[in-house]
Hints:
Blueprint: H1 2-10, H2 42-75
Amino acid sequence: MCALAMMVSACSTTSPRGYLPTQQNLLQKCPESLPTLVDGTGKTVMVTMKEWATQYHDCATRHNGLVDAVTKEATQ
């Protein structure tokens, strides 16, 4: 009887309360610092601003994905 109870409980497909399965890439923190602007030449400014934009968009995509995952889980 005890073995049967253990087997049945091991096959449970429900998640523990409060557990949110999330993609690992959504759990990465955003960079704490941005690349530094070395000088004021046009080329350097454009390269640095492009790096800033890339970091922002990568972080925003992860953040929005995490918000969507949490919101979806909360409504189920």
